[in-house]
Amino acid sequence: MANKALLVGINDYAPVGPGGPDLRGCVNDVRDMAHTLNALGIVAAEPTAMRILTDERATRAAILEGFEWLLNGAARGDVLIFHYSGHGSQVIDVSGDEADTRDETICPHDFATAGMITDDDFRVRLKGLAAGVNLDVFLDSCHSGTGTRELAVLDAGSDEQTVVYRYIEPPVDWGYFIEANPTLPLRPILKPDAEETPGQLGTRETVVVRRMNHVLWAGCRNNQTSAEASIGGSFRGAFTYYYCQALRRAGVSITRRRLDSLVSADLAKNGYSQIPQLEGNGTALGQKVFT
Question: How far apart are the C-alpha atoms of 41 and 137, rounded to whole Å?
Fold first, then answer.
């Protein structure tokens, strides 16, 4: 059996250096996740098992190539992890295969010129995933532009913004159609060909999705934003930080459902309004993490 991870964190968006819609906590998220996976014996900190893409190296082409590396040769019992920390957005379904929906996206370093990554980009790659492969996907990014605001955005007596949101407005050629049709349903990224239990999507912390061949850990619901803030003296994504903390406390014998509830409680206790959402088939959600 093989255990592999692809970890992507983007602080510096094109152009390289100041000037892009930059973030501050995403590279720290990658470090936190890499340290946690290695410390708990889930994925070894070795180049053959763990790939890390940050900042200008996390281009659209590199992320998609890395995702293919992650899935290549996967067989029953393998443990695969894809973690993305960076900006998210949403666009109208420009491919035309589902013209009545809009897509959530993730934003590579060069999204402004190369384009965002949508579920259509992942669809063909996930379709061939062998039965019995354990794939956990983590998205610490905003799922829409209509999210709630945090209460404590500014430090007392300071003008510095201490909580920022990982959302990028879509380009006007895609974003206009969402503005003109605000009631269009949202098609979540990385859930191709899955069937949601009616009435559950976006309304609960844990969502059972029949025939889903992976597990999705979303940093927030699909109508919220994911925050990054100064935590422990460094900027980090709130979801990734509290996920790693909870997993280290609990160990790998905890179930996905139980771990999700611990992360949600920690976020709420520390004043974050975002509610993480765990999605997958019923069997996977009740199993121990990474099995």
Answer: 18
Task: Please state the length of the chain.
Answer: 291
Eight-state DSSP code of residue 117: E
Instruction: Say how many Å lie between the first and final Cα of the chain, rounded.
Output: 12
Among 83, 87, 109, 214, the one annotated catalytic: 87
Question: How does pLDDT run across 221-274, given as a tens digit for each residue?
Answer: 766 778 888 998 899 999 999 999 999 999 999 999 999 999 999 999 998 888
Catalytic residue among 83, 107, 109, 142: 142
Provide the pLDDT for residue 126.
87
Please give the Cα distance from 116 to 98 (Å, whole number): 18
Identify whether 220 is a catalytic site residue. Answer: no
Per-residue pLDDT for 159 more than 50? no
C-alpha to C-alpha distance for 13 and 107, rounded to whole angstroms: 9
Beta bridge partners of 50: 5
Q: Is 87 a catalytic residue?
A: yes
Q: Is the pTM of this model over 0.70?
A: yes
Instruction: Give the DSSP letter of residue 195.
Output: E
The answer to whether 11 and 54 are in contact (CB under 8 A) is yes
> Token digits for 208?
């059972």
Q: Where are the beta strands (DSSP E) in the chain?
A: 3-9, 50-54, 79-85, 88-92, 102-106, 117-118, 134-140, 163-165, 186-187, 195-196, 206-210, 215-218, 227-231, 234-237, 277-280
The HSE-up count of residue 174 (CA atoms within 13 Å, CB side) is 22
Q: How far apart are CA 40 and CA 6, in angstroms?
A: 17
Cβ contact 238:225 at 8 Å:
no
